[in-house]
Amino acid sequence: MRWHRVFLRIYTAPDRGHLVLLEGAVHPAARRTGVGTQLLETALGHARTTGAKIVLSDVEADTSGATFLVNKGFRPVLTLVHTRLSLTEVDIAALVEKPHPGYRLVSWEGVAPDGLAESLAGAHNAMNDMPVGDSGRKARRSGGTPNGCARSRKRWPTAARFCTP
Predict the structure, then answer these.
(1) pTM of the full predicted structure?
(2) Mean pLDDT of 49-53
(3) CB 128 within 8 A of CB 141
(4) What CA–CA distances, in Å, run from 132 to 14, 47, 74, 80, 138?
């Protein structure tokens, strides 16, 4: 069975109502047959009905998906670099046991321990000012705490806590 799909994330927050996020895929055997164009046209038609002004799509650089979107009028506005660490090729114990003067590592499962939630929320919100290029996005401003995010995923957070001598 060949699969083809398109997904729109429609933002409803007042500061993001002008945006929709597009995600799509066409089975490799069906590419260049018009299926992707039909999916895109259908998605864009629906996006217009929401009042959106900008459609964003995350796609890997130098792929057929990137070429397809550029050919349909999308333009690259922000490049992200994802990094990877192979746990089979690094000595984790050496990294963990390495001294970290002025800091101590604190780990927990579930809700952040008392005394950390406020500073973690501040650190979490500070990460929301990442560059957004000419994407039409604004840097996120969140008033919540990290405990309120991603409740459907299992998380094991670790923080480096500053220790005063």
Answers:
(1) 0.57
(2) 88
(3) yes
(4) 18, 21, 16, 10, 7
